[in-house]
């Protein structure tokens, strides 16, 4: 009661007394704090029962007022007094001793407000950054401490100041071998003596107001030593606070780390990744959240759960459990993954690479790879769906690169049948595209579809392009034969096959008239001499018509339903192609194929494991479930949209002369159409049944059990662009079931 009465009396005196000059007023309040420790014997009373909070608040107000009255950058006498008399050092010592109880909280608040309110740069002063560094060490020492809120506010304002002037971070990289031992036993016993002899860690000769003081601090900066024995206490304290049970403290600590990793100073980036536990925090928590997921989850739940930005996930356990089991665990995992992704995305380049590699080794290799390599179908399906969601969510280049290397390996040489199993995980994933389980096949195909759309050149090179570099899928003819110009007949070579007159589309479809395997490959039209025409328009239309003519009229149904032809979604195809061109623009792909004289056409051609599986699946399109076929064509369409000349030539040009034993997308479709023609004539009333199935898929007819559509190819559609003579295959899956038609089975 007496202390409260004294405080009231003091305020009354201050209000009635004439105003003092700012410096005298500042010194008065500081002496009011020091006299407390000299005169007071009861050091157990909480600080809130003393005048100390009021004095500290008045000191801050005076410093703020002084700066407002002076020109920008000019240091006033009050600030000079604070620096010269090492007031921050003394306050640190009192805060560490927490004398009186609650003093640490008051000191943290004073430091925070001082750094936040004073516009002139304070951290370069040695009598500021040294006590700040010492106070940083006190933060995060005890979890759930009563000062946690003040600690995180203080650390975040320091991070914000370093973000404004990144070089200052070098003052906070403390050399372990030169770290001064903090001796504050006197403060711990009572704190009175420490007011008179504060623990400053420096000689009395240092003058904080002089420019050479800051220069000396810079010279003694541990970053200048360029060794691996630096402590990054600011990061360590933030890492400790990320373990707080208070979610708000955790989010603020994560925000502080986000600011620190983005600093461009190489020494700080190196210290961050080598001398702190940041990488361990990221990966250990990611592993912990992943292992908390249920062993089996519905892939649809994984795919459709709402996206959650880290730190913003508000949840209700009862509501989440009612939606599907494991939703809360899944959101927690995806939220932390988002934080890791954003942290790596914002990080300095070398630090980002180290953190991404740590995530790859400690999470993907150690935890996810065994899940993807297991034999349990339920486990494979769940882990593949989770991997697909991870790839969809990741946006940082460094983390995406490490995920790609984890999945596909780092090999850049062309594949051979003997080398496709060298990377077990890559081999297993591609094999899963042709798994006995249709669900696993569909999910793995979706995974690769997601990969193809990511802005990473190695994905496309590893899966497809490295096998097409030498263009050895072309028939190796002598140079003079390649240069011959044959006479044209109706714009085509005289020996080119007219698809409309091909035996494939004739009336005689008996088994005897079916072409053999070699005949199917040879039925492709010959290479047209005007193939490399400058504007490319004629050739593109010829290619489009070649594909469209593959399917005979009796197997088509689009013209029976208005607005369902291939031309109705060319606009969407143009948009997707432009998007892909924007992604691939920085990869410097050639606008025209590699000259044949520079290609090694003698090297045996192998389309690669990935295209082999896709072509095998495409070849069985009439005998596979509808959903599988849609996903196969979706992946092929994404590949065909890529603006690479070799990919367009190999996938989309039916006029190229293939090397013996090679197959292309066109040759695979030719075989499928031949089989389709044979089956059509075994189904009575095929065309009405096909039309009925189409209308049911469009929702124009009620569902029935009479027929099942398995998929097909009647609407192979293409995108025509004005920028390039190549064209992009745009298959039916892009517009849903209504753009796929095939054969019907009698139930």
TrEMBL record:
Residues 513-527 have a biased composition (Polar residues). This is FHF complex subunit HOOK interacting protein 2. InterPro entries: FHIP, FHIP_C. Residues 607-699 form the FHF complex subunit HOOK-interacting protein C-terminal domain. Transmembrane segments: none annotated. Residues 213-226 have a biased composition (Low complexity). Belongs to the FHIP family. Residues 476-488 have a biased composition (Basic and acidic residues). Pfam families: DUF5917, RAI16-like. Residues 182-226, 476-536 are annotated as: Disordered.
């Amino acid at each position: 009661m007496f202390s409260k009465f004294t405080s009231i009396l003091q305020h009354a005196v201050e209000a009635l007394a004439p105003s003092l000059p700012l410096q005298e007023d500042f010194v008065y309040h500081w002496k009011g704090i020091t006299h407390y420790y000299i005169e007071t014997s009861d050091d157990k009373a909480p600080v809130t029962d003393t005048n100390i909070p009021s004095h500290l608040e008045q000191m801050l107000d005076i410093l703020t007022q002084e700066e407002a009255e002076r020109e920008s950058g000019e240091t006033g006498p009050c600030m000079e007094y604070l620096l010269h008399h090492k007031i921050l050092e003394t306050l640190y010592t009192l805060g560490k001793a927490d004398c009186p109880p609650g003093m640490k909280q008051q000191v943290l608040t004073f430091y925070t407000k001082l750094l936040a309110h004073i516009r002139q740069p304070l951290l370069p002063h040695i009598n500021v950054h040294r006590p700040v560094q010492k106070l940083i060490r006190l933060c995060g020492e005890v979890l759930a401490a009563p000062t946690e809120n003040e600690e995180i506010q203080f650390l975040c304002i320091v991070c914000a100041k370093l973000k404004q002037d990144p070089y200052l971070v070098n003052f906070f990289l403390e050399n372990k071998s030169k770290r001064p031992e903090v001796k504050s036993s006197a403060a711990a016993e009572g704190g009175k003596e420490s007011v008179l002899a504060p623990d400053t860690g420096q000689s009395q000769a240092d003058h904080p107001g002089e420019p050479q003081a800051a220069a000396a601090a810079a010279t003694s900066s541990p970053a200048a030593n360029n060794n691996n024995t630096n402590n990054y206490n600011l990061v360590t304290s933030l890492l400790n606070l990320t373990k707080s049970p208070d979610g708000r403290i955790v989010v603020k600590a994560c925000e502080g780390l986000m600011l620190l990793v983005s600093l461009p100073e190489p020494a700080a980036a190196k210290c961050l990744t080598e001398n702190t536990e940041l990488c361990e925090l990221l990966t250990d928590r990611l592993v912990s959240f992943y292992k908390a997921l249920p062993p089996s989850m519905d892939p649809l739940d994984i795919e459709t759960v709402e996206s959650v930005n880290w730190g913003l996930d508000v949840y209700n356990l009862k509501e989440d459990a009612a939606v599907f089991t494991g939703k809360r665990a899944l959101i927690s995992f995806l939220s932390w993954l988002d934080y890791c992704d954003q942290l790596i995305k914002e990080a300095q380049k070398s630090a980002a690479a180290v953190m991404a590699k740590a995530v790859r080794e400690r999470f993907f290799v150690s935890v996810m790879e065994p899940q993807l390599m297991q034999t349990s179908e339920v486990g494979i399906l769940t882990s593949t769906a989770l991997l697909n969601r991870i790839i969809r969510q990741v946006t940082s280049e460094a983390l995406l690169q490490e995920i790609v290397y984890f999945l596909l390996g780092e090999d850049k040489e062309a594949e051979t049948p003997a080398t496709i199993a060298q990377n077990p995980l890559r081999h297993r994933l591609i094999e899963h595209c042709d798994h006995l389980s249709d669900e696993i096949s569909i999910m793995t195909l979706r995974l690769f579809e997601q990969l193809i759309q990511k802005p990473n050149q190695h994905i496309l090179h590893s899966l497809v392009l490295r096998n097409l570099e030498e263009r050895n899928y072309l028939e190796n003819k002598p140079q003079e034969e390649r240069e011959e110009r044959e006479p044209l007949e109706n714009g085509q070579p005289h020996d080119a096959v007219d698809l409309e007159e091909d035996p494939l589309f004739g009336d005689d479809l008996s088994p005897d008239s079916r072409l053999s395997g070699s005949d199917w490959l040879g039925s492709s039209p010959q290479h047209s001499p005007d193939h490399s025409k400058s504007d490319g328009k004629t050739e593109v239309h010829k290619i489009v018509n070649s594909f469209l003519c593959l399917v005979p009229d009796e197997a088509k149904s689009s013209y029976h339903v208005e607005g369902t032809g291939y031309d109705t979604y060319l606009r969407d195809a143009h948009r997707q192609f432009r998007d892909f061109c924007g992604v691939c623009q920085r990869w410097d792909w050639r606008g025209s194929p590699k000259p044949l004289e520079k290609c090694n056409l003698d090297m045996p051609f192998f389309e690669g494991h990935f295209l082999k599986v896709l072509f095998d699946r495409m070849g069985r399109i009439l005998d596979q479930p509808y959903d599988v076929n849609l996903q196969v064509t979706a992946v092929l369409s994404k590949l065909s949209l890529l603006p690479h000349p070799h990919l367009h030539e190999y996938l989309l040009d039916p006029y190229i002369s293939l090397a013996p034993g090679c197959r292309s997308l066109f040759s695979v479709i030719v075989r499928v159409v031949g089989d389709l023609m044979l089956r059509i004539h075994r189904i009575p009333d095929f065309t009405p049944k096909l039309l009925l199935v189409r209308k049911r898929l469009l929702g124009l007819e009620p569902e029935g059990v009479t027929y099942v559509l398995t998929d097909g190819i009647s609407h192979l559609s293409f995108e025509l662009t004005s920028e390039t003579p190549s064209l992009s295959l745009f298959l039916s899956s892009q517009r849903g079931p209504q753009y796929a038609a095939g054969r019907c089975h009698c139930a």
